[in-house]
């Protein structure tokens, strides 16, 4: 059923208006009321499990018929294990501390005014994501916990699954203090709906896109609502001349191989050869034994001839695969320059025992997370102790790195006086 | 000399590249080095005072010839008093604490990783402003103090003055550790330069526009770089039934009359008549004696017949003048609803002795600054104790309310380990 642009725009605008109203009501919800809603939503997911899996089966079979790759189809599937994880996710979020209402800072002025900088909800979040239907529940729960209303726009291939999950969440919430429009799903497959969602500044305060770089760039270019972007993770490990050789081997191997398909995996090794050529020879053996393809610059290939030659393109590439580019640098300054030039501002590590260089690296590398003697693989809301994350930001403003509950709030000043007026 | 779009774009792109390089160098500047640069810049402004005033006189005479209003011409003028204030501003900023490098939070994980959330510079700021040439020095100094590079784009009628000030700042900085391109001024009058500035995401991290709502909307609509917006100040005072009548008179009078042309002045009075009709009658007398034109809704005009009738438009209007709209509300809920619907999220006040209503107002009014028993006129970086401000944000993300040194920083995580790898 093709719909006109205008009809779709009107429909999305209506979702926006409702979300804004809901977000205002949510400003008054207590922590208990929010947690109660989360638990009721978890119960509803369990109650409606069969219905959700039925709808999911229809999405999956349609995706297969449409010739989607096995990997994409796998992401779609909501088996019992994934259903249970989704439900447990909601219960875990209920246990986390309330991010709203925290006093971030408080001080008194000479005139007796008391200023409080207080954490408050952002308002309405627009969440745009691809295949995995579990994001529907995860994102809704995190936004709710931070007292934000959410408008969800999942992948069109998962629309039935997402709708069934959203229905369950709404049913669960309906017996609680949660406003009916706190969680809404965009019900149309047409891409024009996204254009409307990302341009209605009046009703949406932040867009969080989750997906490939292409999706995110397209959204950022066309949005007028602020977008919290995660472009890519071109992460580096710099092995300094003063590195502990054992730790350096282990950190590089972990950063590359432990899970190469994720954004905080390393893509480039930078090495100062004053650690000794033997270090690099052994490193190459370890990685090649794990099945890593090495692409080196000229100097590193003089030492390890089995490396393929790296091209200029390699330094810009997020492989998300068992491939590592290798460059010999002549010290920390060149390493930092390389990282700031080619990196994506995500996660970068130094391995060294030298205190001065640890400090220099921590100060001069312009990334969301900078590691000293540890693997880049720790950049993650749970690993940082922030609870579940809704995403990771490679942006510089508002939030950087893992975006969890606190990052889903903003602040306001509450100023209490006793009749003070400005002289 | 008309220039082609392409030539201008290339020129601005070049400024951007240089600013990015300078901003990376500035990450390594110590507090002392920055303060030294600020003081040297202040000295240079004094040394070059005559030259600056000469260039300013040319701008002023040209503006007069072009028929600019007296008010606009007045803003342009750099007399001795303004020159001294500008110089003193730089010296004051040198005395403020360094906003960069602060540990915002620090914690240890069970695996021994130590996480530090550290304040760091944003990078490159694009500042777009209208007439007043003193903004050139103020904005440059604040950005420098937060280790940000700045690209300045002032009003074209002030180009000679701005250039003379920027030259002085650069000369002052040149004898210090400040990178030569830390402070750059867009040297072309053509508006196409603004289009380039606000779309080169790769080189500019944040745009701060200062000017009328029209300017800011045009920038926000066309920018791909994040814009810190200040749209307008439609500020309210709500006088509750339990207000101290004397304090309520004094706060409303102050919020409206002390300086009506600024964004934190009140534009609308909301009153719960359970305080007594006499309160409103006396309030109207006080305000009318000060020369305020009152525009009331039906109910308030039944009590004070001398008010003009308010139209729907009035609730949306930032008068910036001795005009106040007045509406009778039936309690705090209606007051909050009015503020959240018509306000601009800037500064809003309640006057009441009732604790529960103070709390409700503080929680439910969705504005950058919420006042309890105090005038809205205090929303200002200096009044809040933050030092000088570069602007006020009515946005919700990154910074809300006064934007001073801390708001000109972002953060990163520095994670220190001892060889930790992800299991």
Automatic annotation (TrEMBL), chains A, B:
Residues 35-62 form a coiled coil. One of its GO terms (cellular component) is cytoplasm. The keyword DNA-binding does not apply. Gene3D superfamilies: Aldehyde Dehydrogenase, Chain A, domain 1, Aldehyde Dehydrogenase, Chain A, domain 2. It catalyses: L-glutamate 5-semialdehyde + phosphate + NADP(+) = L-glutamyl 5-phosphate + NADPH + H(+). It is found in: Cytoplasm. Pathway: Amino-acid biosynthesis; L-proline biosynthesis; L-glutamate 5-semialdehyde from L-glutamate: step 2/2. The keyword Oxidoreductase applies. InterPro entries: Ald_DH/histidinol_DH (IPR016161), Ald_DH_C (IPR016163), Ald_DH_N (IPR016162), Aldehyde_DH_dom (IPR015590), G-glutamylP_reductase_CS (IPR020593), Glu-5-SA_DH (IPR012134), GPR_dom (IPR000965). Transmembrane segments: none annotated. One of its GO terms (biological process) is L-proline biosynthetic process. GO terms for molecular function: glutamate-5-semialdehyde dehydrogenase activity; NADP binding. Its EC number is 1.2.1.41. Catalyzes the NADPH-dependent reduction of L-glutamate 5-phosphate into L-glutamate 5-semialdehyde and phosphate. The product spontaneously undergoes cyclization to form 1-pyrroline-5-carboxylate. This is Gamma-glutamyl phosphate reductase.
């Amino acid at each position: 059923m093709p719909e006109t642009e205008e009809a779709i725009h009107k429909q999305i605008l209506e979702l926006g208006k409702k979300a804004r109203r809901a977000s205002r009501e949510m400003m008054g919800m207590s922590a208990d009321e929010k947690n109660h809603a989360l638990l009721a939503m978890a119960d509803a997911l369990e109650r409606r499990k069969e219905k959700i899996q039925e709808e999911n089966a229809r999405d999956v079979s349609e995706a297969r018929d449409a010739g989607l790759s096995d990997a994409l189809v796998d992401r779609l599937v909501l088996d019992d294990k994934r259903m249970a994880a989704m439900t447990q996710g909601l219960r875990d979020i209920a246990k986390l501390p309330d991010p709203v209402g925290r006093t971030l800072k408080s001080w008194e002025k000479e005139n007796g005014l008391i200023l409080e900088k207080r954490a408050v909800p952002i308002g309405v979040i627009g969440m745009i994501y691809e295949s995995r239907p579990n994001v529907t529940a995860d994102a809704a729960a995190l936004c709710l916990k931070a007292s934000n209303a959410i408008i969800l726009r999942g992948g069109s291939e998962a629309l039935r699954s997402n709708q069934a999950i959203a229905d369950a969440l709404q049913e669960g919430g309906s017996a609680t203090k949660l406003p009916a429009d706190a969680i809404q799903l965009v019900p149309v497959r047409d891409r024009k709906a996204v254009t409307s969602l990302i341009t209605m500044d009046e009703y949406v305060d932040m867009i969080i896109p989750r997906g490939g770089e292409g999706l995110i760039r397209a959204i950022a270019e066309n949005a007028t609502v602020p977008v919290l972007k995660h472009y890519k993770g071109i992460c580096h490990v710099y092995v300094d001349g003063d590195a502990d050789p054992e730790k350096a081997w282990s950190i590089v191997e972990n950063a590359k191989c432990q899970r190469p398909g994720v954004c905080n995996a390393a893509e480039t090794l930078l090495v100062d050869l004053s650690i000794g050529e033997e270090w690099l020879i052994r490193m190459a053996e370890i990685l090649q034994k794990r099945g890593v393809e090495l692409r080196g610059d000229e100097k590193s290939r003089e030492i390890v001839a089995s490396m393929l030659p790296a091209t200029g393109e390699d330094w810009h590439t997020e492989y998300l695969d068992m491939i590592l580019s290798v460059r010999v640098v002549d010290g920390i300054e060149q390493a930092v320059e390389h990282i700031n030039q080619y990196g994506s501002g995500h996660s970068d590590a130094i391995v060294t025992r030298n205190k001065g260089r640890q400090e220099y690296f921590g100060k001069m590398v312009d990334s969301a997370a900078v590691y000293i003697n540890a693997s880049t693989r720790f950049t993650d809301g749970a690993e940082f102790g922030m609870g579940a994350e809704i995403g990771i930001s490679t942006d510089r403003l508002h939030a950087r790195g893992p975006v969890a509950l606190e990052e889903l709030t903003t602040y306001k000043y509450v100023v209490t006086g006793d009749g003070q007026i400005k002289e």
